[in-house]
Write a structure and sequence with these properties.
6-stranded mixed β-sheet; 15 strands; 3 domains; 472 residues; disordered C terminus; 3-stranded antiparallel β-sheet
């Protein structure tokens, strides 16, 4: 157990428990990361592939990473929708660059099954509140299913040069404890940040939790990794076959061994070989033949079969794995192929959305010290539509909804459907205001109204008008 100078016995025990949990799952998490990056070591049967060729070929298949990326690409967090009350969450989103950091949290959750988002007070020059993302390789926590939040958490910092942990933070409901290790390996408490929030300022994002496993699981399931390993073995066998049969294998009949030792094959321009003729045995003419090269078709057929099984396991179209269909697909056919993938992305948006709402709640606690009761009904996470919709189709949908009176023309929902960024929305509203002002300036001014009861003014006849005869 790690002894830290300045810790109470209870804090020391909790630190040791959480640190042991990180170390216990470190090996499994590193293997998941290796599969995601295509660096996994695959065990071969060593029947068709010689053992010394396994490491020389270094075949890699990125299917496991594809299972994560195709889902992560459809989970774009845009911040929080707010009603008439402005809670300042747009500034939190922009200053913490959550357009990028949120994607890091999502990918970590899809890879490992969990990810963590920490909220704290920013130092001078940093965003306040400060939102950071951690992976299970460096962080863990104790989850209370009744409260649906963490009751404690630990984050450790690994120094790659020194090859050891040099700093750690223990998160508790009322304070954060920062500690460091010196060069001799002695741990000491550096500072205690008493925030008195009454809760741990850490939120976990869980991927695919179940009632029996609230910790979630990786998108790279056992089946996904098994298909990936089989694909590596298949491509390794194809590579070995290619090396053996790239140059046609030939054989010679009726040719004495001593002849090959004396004269050998004589290559002419690297294409034609000649053998010496035996004058003493004219009937035994050397006969040269060629073995038929092995076709790569069996390997490609096997690889396609594995790809079909992998696509079914992940709920993605086969074309995502490089097996394109020659027939042109209609928009309806594309939507049908992506229906399961879209549904899975929408489920992740719901799961992760609860976590991002809790992050917004912690941001208000850190910044203002209180969360208004209206927050829980006013604030909702905002996502990009997981469906594959062209701009033309989105514009057609919006026009019909506006014409039917379902949406106002300048509604934020309209801009969301059209995919406009916040900067584009501000420019559109600015242009609309400028156009209205210009329209008012161009309108003709009405003449002054006559006061009530006043006699109408006598119109002076024009010089070209002729007076009436009776008047004359």
């Amino acid at each position: 157990m790690t002894i830290i100078d300045g810790f109470s016995p209870e804090e020391t025990s909790l630190f040791g428990t959480l640190a042991n949990r990180i170390d216990t799952y470190a090996g499994s998490n590193r293997r998941k990361l290796a599969y995601y990056e295509g660096r996994q070591r695959v065990k071969h049967l060593r029947i068709a592939v010689p053992p010394h060729l396994e490491n020389l070929l270094n075949i890699s298949v990125g299917w496991a990473g594809t299972a994560v990326d195709v889902l992560n690409e459809r989970i774009d967090f845009l911040g929080w929708n707010q009603s008439d009350t402005d809670y300042g969450l747009g500034t939190v989103y922009a200053r913490n660059r959550l357009s990028v950091e949120a994607g890091l949290a999502h990918s970590a959750s899809l890879i490992y099954g969990q990810a963590y988002v920490c909220v704290g007070a920013g130092l001078p020059g940093e965003p306040h509140p400060l939102v950071t993302v951690e992976s299970p390789l460096a962080m863990t926590g104790v989850y209370d299913a009744r409260q649906r939040r963490l009751t404690s958490a630990l984050s450790r910092v690994w120094d790659a040069e020194k090859k050891k942990y040099t700093a750690a933070t223990l998160f508790l409901p009322d304070e954060n404890i920062y500690c460091q290790a010196d060069d001799s390996g002695v741990w000491r408490v550096v500072s205690r940040n008493t925030h008195n929030l009454g809760r741990v300022p850490v939120v976990r994002l869980v991927n695919r939790p179940t009632a029996s496993n609230l910790d979630g699981r990786s998108e790279m399931s056992h089946a996904v990794r098994s298909y990936t390993d089989e694909a590596v073995r298949t491509l390794t066998g194809a590579a070995v076959s290619r090396e053996f049969y790239a140059t046609p294998q030939r054989y010679v009949l009726n040719h004495a061994a001593e002849q090959s030792e004396s004269a050998g094959w004589e290559a002419i321009a690297g294409r034609v070989w000649s053998l010496p003729y035996d004058d003493e045995n004219p009937d035994a003419k050397p006969e040269v033949g060629e073995f038929t090269a092995a076709s790569p078709t069996p390997f490609l057929d096997q690889l396609r079969g594995l790809a079909e099984g992998f696509a079914g396991e992940c709920g993605i179209p086969l074309s995502y794995l490089g097996f394109a269909n020659d027939q042109a697909s209609s928009a309806d056919a594309i939507r049908a192929l992506e229906a399961r993938l879209v549904k899975r992305a929408e489920q992740r948006q719901t799961e992760f959305g609860h976590a991002w709402t809790e992050v917004a709640e912690l941001c208000l606690l850190v910044r203002d010290g209180v969360v208004p009761e209206s927050f829980y009904s006013d604030v909702q996470p905002k996502w990009v539509d997981a469906n594959t919709i062209s701009r033309a189709a989105a514009a057609d949908e919006v026009v019909k909804l506006v014409q039917a009176g379902v949406l106002p023309a300048d509604s934020d929902v309209v801009y969301d459907r059209l995919g406009f960024t916040e900067t584009a929305r501000k420019q559109i509203r600015h242009d609309q205001r400028r156009a209205r002002v210009a329209g008012l300036a161009d309108q003709p001014h009405d003449t002054a109204t006559e006061p009530a009861g006043a006699a109408p003014a006598t119109r002076r006849p024009s010089t070209t008008e002729q007076p009436d005869n009776e008047a004359a």
